[in-house]
């Protein structure tokens, strides 16, 4: 059985999808971009600030499912410029303990929604 997870502390979906779906003990988050949920505006000041907003959005979705970053088992990172990898990785990494960090892939793509620079999705298990 699937349960739809929603929170006002993360951006509302901009299409036919939900912030996350809980199936059994596994949470599947939709990709998050740097929308500020309070203003509805994109946070694109610099790649560090953008990545932090993405991670805070994911944190809010995880919390809505009574989970934390410690529950994350897999992340997918999509970036528009691999030259930004180091800065994105530093912010992303600050949310995890290196010894228990999840599996992950990072892929450079031609374009992301709303022409943002980074989008991240996660899978987590209770």
UniProtKB/TrEMBL annotation:
InterPro entries assigned: RidA (IPR006056), RutC-like_sf (IPR035959), YjgF/YER057c/UK114 (IPR006175)
Organism domain of life: Bacteria
Pfam family, one: Ribonuc_L-PSP
Gene Ontology MF terms in the entry: deaminase activity
GO cellular component: cytosol
Transmembrane domains' residue ranges: none
Record-stated family: Belongs to the RutC family.
Protein name in the entry: RidA family protein
Provenance organism: Hwangdonia lutea
């Amino acid at each position: 059985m699937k349960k739809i997870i929603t929170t006002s502390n993360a951006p509302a979906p901009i299409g036919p999808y939900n912030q996350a779906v809980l199936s059994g003990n596994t949470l599947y988050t939709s990709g998050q971009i740097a929308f500020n949920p309070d203003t509805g505006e994109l946070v694109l000041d610099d790649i560090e600030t953008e990545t932090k907003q993405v991670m805070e959005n994911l944190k809010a979705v995880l919390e809505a499912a009574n989970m934390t970053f410690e529950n994350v088992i897999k992340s997918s990172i999509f970036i528009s410029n691999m030259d930004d990898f180091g800065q994105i990785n530093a912010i992303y990494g600050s949310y995890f303990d290196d010894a228990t960090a999840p599996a992950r892939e990072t892929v450079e793509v031609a374009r992301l929604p709303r022409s943002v620079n980074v989008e991240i999705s996660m899978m987590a298990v209770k």
